[in-house]
Amino acid sequence: MSYKKIIITLGLLLVIFGPIAFIGSIALNLEYDTDKLVNYKPKVSSRIYDVNGDKIANIFEGRHRFYAPFDQIPPQMVEALLAIEDTSFFEHDGINYDAIFRAIIKDIKAMAMVEGASTLTQQLVKNTLLTREKKISRKIKELILSYKIESELTKVEILERYFNEIYLGHHYYGVKTAADGYFHKKLKDLTLKETAILVGLPKAPSYYAPTKNYDISLGRANRVIDRLYALKWITQEEHDKALAEHPVVYDETLTQNKAPYIVDEVQRRLKGEFPDIKTGGYEIYTTIDLSMQEAARDAMMYGYEQAKIRLEKYNEVVVEKKDDEHYPEYVDQNLTKFNGAMVSVEPSVGEIRALVGGVDHKISAFNRATQARRQPGSAFKPFIYQIALDLGYSGATNLVDISKTYNYESEDDDSKKWKPKNYENNFKGLISLREALLHSRNLATINLVTDIGIQTITSRLHKWYGIEDLPNDLSLSLGSITLTPELFAHYFSSFANGGIQTDLTLIRRVDQGDETVFEHAPQVTKKVTEERQAFLMTTILRDIVQRGTGYRARAWGIELAGKTGTTNDSIDAWFVGYSPTIETVVWFGNDDNSPLWGKEQGGWTAAPSFSHYYKKLIKIKPQIPRKFEMPEDVIEVTLEGGKKEYFTDISKPPSVEVTAEVDEEILF
Q1: Are residues 514 and 643 in the same domain?
Q2: What is the residue-averaged pLDDT of the chain?
Q3: Is the residue at 91 inside a domain?
Q4: Mean of the pLDDT values across residues 199-228?
Q5: Which of 104-118, 218-232, 329-343, 645-659 has the lowest mean pLDDT?
Q6: How much of the chain is helix, strand and coil, in % rounded to 5?
Q7: Which pLDDT does position 575 carry in this prediction?
Q8: Is 542 within 8 Å of 628 (Cβ atoms)?
């Protein structure tokens, strides 16, 4: 045989057997790892809901995906997908040979790749098990793996994995995710047009994404609808109605986060018990009311903006009176350190309805409502006065409002003197308990604690209210302990709840699939005082709002009770109070514990936010109770001048007159 014939023969053999040998070589060396699809367990996003079932946010890690079992996928969606992508899906074994040959002929005629022939199984394999490299070897792997998947999974299982794995643009993976993201709907609520938009996306998800190219996306959806009609899978009426529809499409962030401080706090509280909180597909139900959360956020911003206005005026005075000791320095207009927090609860059930950890989460994610411990100042005084009421004092009992100087030893054994004073720098001599708390008189409070005994006060605060880490000295009278706003709301709940203190709840339950994997234990409550005694305190705190230091907390149309609080050098500014059903704590201050400017204090800085919140609250919740109900065993007495005083069988009217000179000063 001549060399020419040998070369021709070898060439023919190569043409005939070369592809077979090439395919065989790939098949022999291919690792048939289909476990990722056979035992399909993708990371699934979790969702956080408010008390009404409205979504607060999605949380996830990496890919954003909600999982939909096949029985949740509407038949209409299955038909639409098969119509446009793989009509013979239930007939082939993973590879549609007829479609492949038709595509080859068209590609040869066009001298280019103009038509593909991938089945749904091939698409699933390509997107899940293989890379997207355009090589013949990868295509051969795809065919072999598709055939293998068809032998290991049922058609329904393949479809279920496809519907959950496929990428549908806008960083949405799976049809349930895309339905929620694009249309804010569940799968069962999608219209035919919305369904057609989703099943039309896999061909070119970024190009056909309705958030990017709405008209092009509709055109693609219309081709899906035409195809359904051509196959006689929908009627003429359904076809025409779907073509005419222009669905509303939402272009939002993946998280759709409506309350970032809540989302952060929920994850912080659950991550210990649920390390996969972002990927386990949990449904987390909180006690938050989104409408109240929005009102609280607006109220915080209102207080912040009002503070900026006062700061501008303060700085104007600084420039004019730079030598005045009351205006010692110019304050940074950016307010980079200044921030605040708010907690609003429904004390009767112990559930947190709103929680704002700062003015702007984008600037600072630190949650001051749950993580920042600050001194409450005079906002702590109601606890002391309630103990006095429960020991038989009444609002009419006279307290001594005079100056005293206290000697004490410092840590370095030096002799020191402490001479507390009233905010107004004056003395009243004698003042009623009601008026003392109404005007937040420091000296009267200190003398009250002295009369009752510091040991009695600290013992009852610990035993009755559960308050920890109490200083064993008279500084307690001025609120020298440290509390987070959330913890303060817990302790203060007894005033707002008729003498019953409640533990506070943020998370009601956590579901995973059809199973509840966490549920909050029954609410823990503790009776701190009798309802009638708690009402006496409410009448005083109500007066504080109506005519005392908290008058800027007033909101027309609803009775409010509360107490201002300001610490030394105006480092912390508080207002803590309640309506007949809702309790709220507001705090403002500098994150670095530096003093606020000028005369910023609880009544100026925190009370306006409190007022703004309740003004919004009665608009969004017009049905909430507006007036405090007086228990039957409380006696109301009208005093001279029209003022009212209240008494019980414990807190009786005083029977002995006490006198004290205004200029009296006692040295200890």
Answers
A1: no
A2: 88
A3: yes
A4: 96
A5: 104-118
A6: 45, 15, 40
A7: 98
A8: yes
Burial code (b: 16+ CB inside 10 Å, e: under 16) for 255-284 equals: bebbbbbbbbbbbeebeeebeebbbbbbbb
The pLDDT, as a whole number, for residue 33 is 76
Kindly write down the DSSP assignment for every residue of 170-205, as one continuous string.
Answer: TTEESHHHHHHHHHS--GGG--HHHHHHHHTSTTSH
Amino acid residing at 610: F
**Residues 471 and 606 grouped into a single domain:** no
Q: What is the dihedral of CA 447, 452, 456, 460, to 10 degrees?
A: -90
Count of C-beta atoms within a 10 Å radius of residue 524: 11
DSSP assigned state of 598: T
Cα(first)–Cα(last) distance of the chain, in Å?
Answer: 129
Place of tokens 């969702």: 47
Q: What is the CATH number for 208?
A: 1.10.3810.10
Among 9, 599, 646, CA closest to 313? 599
Q: Under a CB-based contact definition with an 8 Å cutoff, are residues 174 and 202 in contact?
A: no
Structure confidence at residue 205 as a pLDDT band (50, 70, 90): very high
Residues 617, 638: one domain?
no
Tell me if 650 sits within 8 A of 656, measured CB to CB: no
pLDDT over 50 at 6, yes or no:
no
Residue 661: pLDDT over 70: no
Choice among 190-194, 198-202, 475-479, 640-644 with the minimum mean pLDDT: 640-644
- High-pLDDT (> 70) share of the chain, %: 84
Q: Do 423 and 561 lie in a common domain?
A: no
Residue 536 to residue 392: CA distance in whole angstroms: 12
Co-location of 445 and 593 in the same domain: no
pLDDT reading at 629 higher than 90 = yes
Contact criterion met (CB below 8 Å) for 168 and 174: yes
529 and 614 belong to one structural domain: yes
Residue 253, C-beta contacts closer than 8 angstroms, at least 6 positions apart? none
Range of the domain at 241: 61-254
Mean pLDDT of 94-99: 74
Radius of gyration of the chain (CA): 36
Give CA–CA dist 100/97, Å, rounded.
5
Structural domain includes residue 276: no
**Is residue 454 located within the same domain as residue 507?**
no
For residue range 297-329, what is the model confidence (pLDDT) as tens digits? 999 999 999 999 998 888 887 776 666 666 567
Q: Does one domain contain both 221 and 102?
A: yes
Judge whether 501 lies within some domain: yes
46-49 vs 55-59, strand pairing mode: antiparallel
CA distance linking residue 158 with residue 150, whole number of Å: 8
Helix (H) or strand (E) holding 480: none
pLDDT reported for residue 7: 47
Q: What is the CATH number of the domain that holds 588?
A: 3.40.710.10
Tell me, yes or no, whether 48 lies in a domain: no
The structure tokens 């779907």 sit at 242
Domain total in the chain:
3
